[in-house]
Amino acid sequence: MDRMRLGLVFVVAAMLGAQTGRDWQAVFAVDKKLLGVKGANPFFPLNVGDRWSYRHEKDTETVTVLAETRMIDGVECRVVEDREMKNGKTTELTQDYYAIDAATNDVYYMGEAVNGGKGGSWLSGVKGAKFGLMMPGKPKPGQKFYQEQAPGVGMDRVEIVSDSETVVTGAGTFKNCIHALETTPLEKGVTDHKWYAAGVGPVKDAEMVLASYSGAYMK
């Protein structure tokens, strides 16, 4: 390949936010007109009424897709409630905001409100924060991307390390799961492992394991 063609390849890659080396994708070439609440990602369902319950010893977590939406950064986003409990008492209540690309079924993370907007809260388009990719419509091993891009608040990033793992949970055994390794430059050395099953969604997050799930999309 001659130098001119090689240079063109690098320019195009940069424009598309392509990953090189140990970099995570931070630029997402999406048309905001296609982002909204329509679409269906099998590994990250967002149908109204979908609910997942997780458990680890005395800790529980319930995630529910609400009927409400919120406009963020010019995009209509689906609101998802995440309630964490310990010994029967709520320890954290978060509203997460997601948008789906109707053309690709990629799910983007548009922000979150933690316990009414306290520490950890951010919104795309506010104070320099930008949306990140939560789950590709067609996830593949080797993909590396930022899920959160809120400097100093949330900078979670993910590398998909496998698409063929089996996860055993109280809600059943799931094959061909996506295994995502999560890190953040805000906490060096800290890692989190998450697994997602097609037709179900998240089935395990570190020690929190799926206990039950329900929803129109799920079978």
Structural key phrases:
single chain, 219 residues, mainly beta, YmcC-like fold, 15 strands, disordered N terminus
Could you describe the 3D structure shown?
By secondary structure, the protein is mainly beta. The chain has a single domain, classed as Beta Barrel (YmcC-like fold). It is built from one helix and 15 strands; from the N terminus they run αβββββββββββββββ. The protein has a 15-stranded antiparallel beta sheet that branches. The longest helix is centred in the first third of the chain and has 13 residues, at 3-15. The N and C termini lie far apart (49 Å). Mean pLDDT is 89; it is low at 1-21.
